[in-house]
Amino acid sequence: MNYSIFHFSLDEIRDLVISTVAIALIFAWPGRGFYIFNDPVFLYRFIIAILIVGSSFIFHELAHRTVARYFGAYSEFRAWFEGLAIALILKILIGFTFIAPGAVYIFKDYLTSEESGIIALSGPLSNVFLAILFSVFSIFLPPFTIISHILYFGVYINLYLAAFNLLPVPPFDGFKVLSWNPIIWAIVALPLFYWAFF
């Protein structure tokens, strides 16, 4: 197995591309039904979703993958095609946004609780980093422009992804982080929960 962080199998590239397109389509979909055919800005929303949501999702999964390989584990992203199909159907039928694209599968004889916790934490932290990056970029732009709205959307999506993934229940990242170190989980998760849910 190739443990280099730059090695991608053809199956992994395929799964990342399909998941990215599916997630962008779900976020860009204008509510339940097939109103995209009468929506003149759907294509623009889809392109923006590819750039923002897609990059946020890929960065999250590659963070897991890279840290796992750092700890000597072979890791690859695998899409959950059934979950992506269910998510798209839910969006079309009832307008509900549910994202379950897949996961990074880790292959190693043994991972310590600390290694597992750090691998899990790396995904949400990557989204926090991207949110900060988008926020910093927005400082240098005039408000209420198209680019500033895109950057605000990037901040929102990344903080939401970080908060959602830190829920302390399996199979979310938060469960593994909490099992490893409750203090670190609280320091990272509780401010995000406050921002997202209150």
Your description of this structure?
The protein is mostly helical. The protein has two domains: about 1-110, no CATH class; about 120-198. Helix content is about 65%, strand content about 5%. It has seven helices and two strands; from the N terminus they run H-H-E-H-E-H-H-H-H. It has helices at about 10-30, 40-70, 80-95, 115-140, 145-165, 175-180, 180-195; strands spanning about 75-80, 100-105. It has a two-stranded antiparallel ribbon with strand order 1-2. Helix 4 runs antiparallel to helix 5 and helix 6 packs antiparallel against helix 7. It is globular and about 55 Å long. The chain starts with 9 loop residues before the first helix and ends with a helix. Belongs to the peptidase M50B family. InterPro entries: Metallopeptidase_M50B (IPR052348), Peptidase_M50 (IPR008915), Rip2-like (IPR044537). It is a multi-pass membrane protein. This is Peptidase M50 domain-containing protein. It comes from Methanofervidicoccus abyssi.
Please sum up the structure shown.
With 198 residues, the chain is mainly alpha-helical. It has helices at residues 10-28, 42-70, 81-94, 113-139, 146-165, 173-180, 182-197; strands at 74-79, 102-107. The longest helix has 29 residues, at 42-70.
End-to-end separation in angstroms reads 45 Å
SS elements, strand count: 2
- Quaternary organization: single chain
How would a crystallographer describe the biggest sheet?
2 strands, antiparallel
- Low-pLDDT segments, ≥5 res: none
Helix content: 55-70%
Strand content bin: 5-15%
- Number of alpha- plus pi-helical segments: 7
Shape field: globular
Order of helices and strands: HHEHEHHHH
| Mean model confidence by pLDDT | 90
Structural class: mainly alpha
Radius of gyration: 17 Å
Question: How many domains, as an integer?
Answer: 2
User: Could you give the order of strands across the largest sheet?
Assistant: 1-2
